[in-house]
């Protein structure tokens, strides 16, 4: 009976998690067939990730058993339509974070300094290699310039935008949303099921009868306060990051991960209309 109740709870949780995704599909005229095809692709993709994480061999048979999909579907998706994936957690964002907090790349006033880009031992190359030694610094330089995060000066490149933006690339923005959702699910799941203490922060504030003429002011206030909060958070966490503070030394064990997320939503209408 206990196992059956647990299964029923998990099935109910799946429905809760699917609601915003299905609403997104319906608002943009995507059918159940579109959803099913996307779900198959994601099932195969995540199953392959889980097998690799467990250091097990990935093949069609194992993916079929793990996902419940027919072998022909797995073969089509995994073998015939494999696509490359970008590095997790925006590499450009990690480089910017390193630049903002690593003392080796700051000036005397504690601000990100201009970094040289020429030569095999350039400062910018050193910066990128503190984050990943498997990526071409020129590729990162091109991406940061494309995003408007840096500008060239006679002495090198200057950081002018201290957080990566995705306004010109909706796909990247929704990729970030996917990571946000995964992190939130993990945090809530640990709070409710693992009952680790202290629990993960999970706070929601909502008012549903705000004077509409004040919404723009409120939106700007939330953005400004959110930036201040995240700046303080980054400054605090950077003190404990072994990549940024090599002086922490071998006496401490790295590998801990901390994610702090924030978003706000202000609207005059409860929902947007469905597409016809």
Walkthrough of the structure:
About 3% of the residues have low confidence. The chain folds into three domains: 79 residues; 69 residues; 79 residues, no CATH class. It is 52% helix and 3% strand. The protein is built from nine helices and two strands. A hairpin with a 2-residue loop joins strand 1 and strand 2. The chain has 276 residues and is mostly helical. Helix 5 packs across helix 6 and helix 6 packs across helix 7. It has a two-stranded antiparallel sheet with strand order 1-2.
Short structural description:
With 276 residues, the chain is mainly alpha-helical.
List the helices and strands and how they pair.
Elements (H helix, E strand, L loop, with lengths): L1 H26 L4 H22 L6 H8 L3 H10 L10 H11 L21 H9 L5 H10 L3 E4 L2 E4 L10 H25 L20 H23 L39
Antiparallel strand pairs: 1-2
Helix pairs in contact: 2-3, 2-4, 3-4, 5-6, 6-7
